[in-house]
Amino acid sequence: MSTHGFDDIxxxxxxxxxxxxxxxxxxxxxxAAVCRAGTQHIYADTADVEELRALVSTDGGVxxxxxxxxxxxxxxxxxxxxxxxxxxxxxxxxxxxxxxxxPTPEQLRTALYAIVCGRLGNDAVRACAAGRAWAVSLxxxxxxxxxxxxxxxxxxxxxxxxxxxxxxxxxxxxxxHCFLVARDLEREGIPVNFTSTFSARQTVAAxxxxxxxxxxxxxxxxxxxxxxALLGEHVDLAAQRALRQLRRDGISKTLLIVASVxxxxxxxxxxxxxxxxxxxxxxxxxMTQTEVPADAVRSQLDTSYADRLGIPDELxxxxxxxxxARLYDVExxxxxxxxxxxxxxxxxxxxxxDALAKRFDQAGFGDLFxxxxxxxxxxxxxNKLPDFDAPLSRRxxxxxxxxLLADADFEKxxxxxxxxxxxxxxx
Length: 427
Known about the structure:
three-stranded mixed β-sheet
């Protein structure tokens, strides 16, 4: 179908007129200490502009060190009713149908969800940027994971809606072309936040194959799932060192996001990592705590928590130490494979995710990908944390398992929002 008029209308609907405020920038001593330790950005993990405004507003100004926010399906779910009630979804759908006479229900759902994301992204920029660049990460509709071309098209639209926006492309082990989507968007100059990642090797693959702007370690979920104290922090630091080496070697520009932060101590435990994205409550808690003074916040990039992971002995025996170590160890053979692949002619022109997965499998790293059966998806959707007694948990590497669980969790929220959109689209 011809998408030019459709996309132009979509972009216009996702970027309604509005006025930006430009209060002065004010610094937080504790957040500034984290930045002096080497951190480049601190983002708020929220899609709620009111929550964001309450966090960054201080002394008649706006916090200098908080310079962006990140949103995913669970976070958009918290505010989508506000945007659907304040907007005119049926009118939006009518305008899009006018640009293309027979858009499918799926196309309209993904388009209207993009409009909501564009609007909340522009609200954040106008309220908090204060004249500087404000990076707002907006995640693609989960249904787009199965359609590489549609994912790229909506990614382009999101970037046009929010010129400082970053497109969140989730790692989908069942759809290996996610790496190619991220690669192609970055080649077009559209920054990508490659998300749903849980291990150093996943972040290295995203950096070397797609040269993404940002990638993540969901450290809080790692700790929660394995009842650990500092496993997530240890994985973050291992990934950070690996990405730092890739940047030194001129291979990739990718920055690491410390994501899925649960409490303020994380800022101290992994200070110096490239980027933090944390709930507003955790950021506020760190700024207002008195336990750790600013001058005690130092870079932890050379710290190892290997002897302080805090995984209960029974769980450690059940899951296996070697299994867990694959979250933070990056095999030299993987680096060699990725180095050869990324510079090859066939990868440069590759458009087929199955071909990419085949190359990984031939090199011995095919376990990075997995397509669950319908029954396995049903099990994965029961809980966002692993059940280590389940057959799938024993068969898959932990990072692939955690990624599938995260995507299944996001898909549940997406399905609920699709229902809300459907109700209003034809009202």
